[in-house]
What we know:
This protein is mostly beta strands. The protein has strands at 2-6, 9-11, 17-24, 33-38, 45-50, 67-72, 77-82, 91-99, 102-105, 109-113. Strands 2, 4, 5, 8, 9 and 10 form a 6-stranded mixed beta sheet that branches. The protein has a 4-stranded antiparallel beta sheet with strand order 1-3-7-6, with no helix packed on it.
Amino acid sequence: VQLVESGGGLVQPGGSLRLSCAASGFAFRNWLMSWYRQAPEKEREFVAAIRVAGGQTPYANSVKGRFTISRDNLKNTVYLQMNNLTPEDTAVYYCKTILNGTVYWGKGTLVAVSS
């Protein structure tokens, strides 16, 4: 199982970024995928999740209305579109899945929001 995040970078407040997480080594289309983030000196926190097909996509209250999670089951990729970014969104963003009780994380991609 491999999860590889990309798309992070430095962006000004109010800007946008789209993160990608390329998955391999498992049947991507059958599993829930999530995004988490960890800001400096803070615990890792949930951002958003997307189910296999349809249904609700839960978001952390802090990102509702600004972030959108989506997935492309043909490309084995999950995305996180982030709009209206603020300095409080600065963090390393991680992709996560749980397969048969085992948790898998990517290595993360850094998002820095600063003027």
